[in-house]
Amino acid sequence: MSDMLQIEVKVNGAQRLIDVAVHHTLLDVLRDDLELTGTKECCVVGECGACTVLVDGRAMNSCLMLAVEVDGSEVTTVEGLATDGRLSPLQEAFLDAGAAQCGFCISGQLMAAHALLSRIPHPTVEEVNEGLAGNLCRCAGYEQITQAVLMAAEGGDR
Amino acid sequence: MRGFQYARPVTVGEAVALLDEYGPDARLLAGGTDLVIGFRDGSIRPKVVIDLKRISELRPSIEHTGESISISACAVMTDIVEHAGVREHFPALVEAAQVVGSVQIRNRATLAGNICNGSPAADTAPPLLVYDAMVAVSGPTGARRMPIDEFIVGPKRVALERGELVTAIELPIPDPPIGSAYTRLTRRWGTDLASITLCCGVDGAGVTRLAYGSVGPRAFLVVDESGILADPHMSDDAKAPLLDRMFAEATPSPRSMRASPEYRLAMLRVLGARALRTAIGRLPKGSTT
Fold first, then answer.
1. Mean pLDDT value of segment B20-29
2. Chain A, 36-65: which have a CB under 8 Å from a chain B CB?
3. pLDDT: is A2 or B167 the higher one?
């Protein structure tokens, strides 16, 4: 037992060895230790989804997990969606649809949508609504966000 | 967040030894979707956090033997929703698991945690009661099994002794088959705690099992063996007085911010009648005596 632990995590494709305080959340470590501030801190009770990341491919609230729990796992944050400086088709669709207003929730929306499309490449509107039900947008840009996800699905592998 | 020590045992025995040593100063961590909130707001202040996810016996797994389905302590809601055997035999548990929180929560929250957390509003408690689930427990004196109805005690209380932890939840395959349905009342779609949770199961012999939560200190199971509720040919009006008596255990709190007692009691009858109709409709053809 200890209060610090070294963990091995693959973050956005790069293997990392990180010393973390055992009581720090994954969100704390991503933002403060790894300076990946794309992942947002908001409600910190698992209701708003702004802190959503993928852990081994599944969308999760990084505010509700200790960083030590992802030891040996693969974590993808919003910074990991673009490849070689080019936005992913999903990110492009968010821009095209005007889905980002203030933008604060968008990292989480993107990660939840990315997880949804990996599971269901061509979702119905209902499936998009359910897949993003854990992500709140206080600008209430839900129409455009849903539209963006459907546009990205339509575009397929473009 | 206050500091604590973190332990990552690899066997149930090690976890039990730690739990036994630290008693109330230790907390078990599986999904953590309730626990981490408590760490942050200071309502839960453990000295030691025991992470169960490295214990091979507790790894997420759902085992289907001929007579039962066993759901390990670290299996999450998404695992349950996606499992073909659970979908076939325990549709009401699937319906409950798939409305817990959001996708993000369901990818993390465990069935065992939902029960051990002891919330009167736990979505999965009513279906587990209707399906007569057994809780497998390990502790300093060995392993034991107990019915879910005895395991659930009250708000934040379950029948675990010092040093004990849940290793699995076992669901006996209903024989003969039953029709079952889960429904709940929330203020909105998406992440919300339920104002009523309700599950109904009927069998071909006319037995109706009804379990409901979020309207008292724990989820209650009531059974009607008169055959009246399960009768597909009897009208809702004829069933109403009996259904009302089934809800006698409901004592919704006047202090809840989610719904008034009057509203909950009125809606309990609506949801009860609705779940009963769905359950009867799902009873396999030819199983009515």
1. 97
2. 44-47, 49, 52, 58-61, 63-65
3. B167
SS (H, E, C) A93-154: HHHHCCCCCCCCCHHHHHHHHHHHHHHCCCCCHHHHHHHCCCCCCCCCCHHHHHHHHHHHHH
- Name the pLDDT band for B256 (thresholds 50, 70, 90): confident
Q: Give the model confidence (pLDDT) of B201-241 as tens digits.
A: 999 999 999 999 999 999 999 999 999 999 999 999 999 99
Interface test with B, best of A61, A120, A136, A149 (most B CBs within 10 A): A61
Among A80, A103, A121, identify where a domain stops: A80
ipTM of the modeled complex:
0.96
One domain, residues A16 and A67: yes
Q: Kindly report, residue by residue over B27-43, the tens digit of the pLDDT.
A: 999 999 999 999 999 99
Q: pLDDT at position A158, please? A: 42
Number of domains in chain B: 3
Please determine, for residue B289, whether its predicted confidence score (pLDDT) is greater than 70: no
DSSP-derived letter for residue B23 is G
- Point out the residue among B6, B32, B101 whose CB comes nearest to the CB of A22: B6
Residue A157 scores a pLDDT above 80? no
Q: Which of A56, A80, A104 is the last residue of a domain?
A: A80
Token duo for residue A14: 């790069």
Which distant-in-sequence residues (6+ apart) come within 8 Å of B52 by Cβ?
B9, B15, B28, B29, B30, B58, B73, B74, B165
Question: Comparing C-alpha atoms, which of B86, B104, B83, B82 is closest to residue A116?
Answer: B104
Q: Strand B48-51 to strand B26-29: parallel, antiparallel, or no bridges (unpaired)?
A: parallel
Residues B36, B88: one domain?
A: no
Q: Are A126 and A80 in contact (CB under 8 A)?
A: no
Domain that holds residue A100: 89-155
Is A2 part of the contact surface with chain B (CB cutoff 8 Å)?
Answer: yes
